[in-house]
Amino acid sequence: MRYRTPLLFVLVGAIWGTTFPAVRAAVDVVPPVLFAALRFDATALLILGYAAVRGYRVRPTRGEWASILAGGVFLIALHHALLFAGQQYVTSAVAAVVVATVPILTAALSRLLLPSTALGAVGVFGLGLGFLGTAIVANPDPAALYTAESLGVALIFAAAIAFALGAVLTQRTRTELPVASLQGWMMLAGAPVLHAASLSLGEPQSVDWTPAALLALVYLVPIAGGLGYLLYFDLLDRIGSVEINLVSYLLPVFAALVGWLALDEGLESTTIVGFLVVAVGFGLVKRRALARLLDL
């Protein structure tokens, strides 16, 4: 039983890391924002159903809607619209490395929006390393700056900023609504926003469900959305929010491996170097929390 927590930690990293190649395969044939909307239509019902079966309080109070709407707009709708759109242009590994900047960006935005949070000079340097790592991954060519890959990295980095902002806003408005119920309602609030965005972008609303796209949706809803979140909630209770952020640094490993095996994606040296720089930046930003964790 003493190995249960580390095994669950690696399993969450494997499940969520594999979502990047799953999305990459799907958005080749399905409009990306529509695909994100369909994913959260189904996942919201799954998570809320789980919360109800477990006996958690599901019905939110009037004061809890601020947190739900902040999460629905930023964590679910804006983050995933930008992420899925960006994944049309980059490999799974590149997308996962850029998303790994979320904990760093969250710390920076917390400093701006939560007065009790201090970043400090070392933390600012770590934040700078996060930006530098993303630039290394993008590997822009001055002679051809506006390439499809550069656009993809820019969209995914914007998705990371949206997620970080949503995390801080929900922290400011956090109530006693159980985490599973809160996540389910966020998804239920975010899915219509994604549908509206898909329509406004002029995406086709009919989907040609190829075997690859259907398999990706099946993986993303019951496995990544259902099992993945159940394991996440379990770990959150066991190790806390700071430690669970470390799972972000397992995602690129599994994304690169599965992307190579399933989609024949290559792995550039700049992606590896950028990932290491981002990881060092995270270590500097979260150095005190990591030190406390090591003491345990």
Automatic annotation (TrEMBL):
- Pfam families noted in UniProt: EamA
Transmembrane residue ranges: 35-53, 65-83, 89-110, 117-138, 150-170, 182-201, 213-232, 244-263, 269-285
Q: What is its main location?
A: membrane
EamA domain span: 7-137, 151-285
Source organism superkingdom: Archaea
Show the GO cellular component annotation of the record: membrane
Record keywords: Membrane, Transmembrane, Transmembrane helix
Q: Which InterPro entries does the record match to this protein?
A: AA-Vitamin_Transporters (IPR050638), EamA_dom (IPR000620), EmrE-like (IPR037185)
Membrane topology, as annotated, equals:
Multi-pass membrane protein
| Cellular location(s) | Membrane
What is the designated name of this protein? EamA domain-containing protein
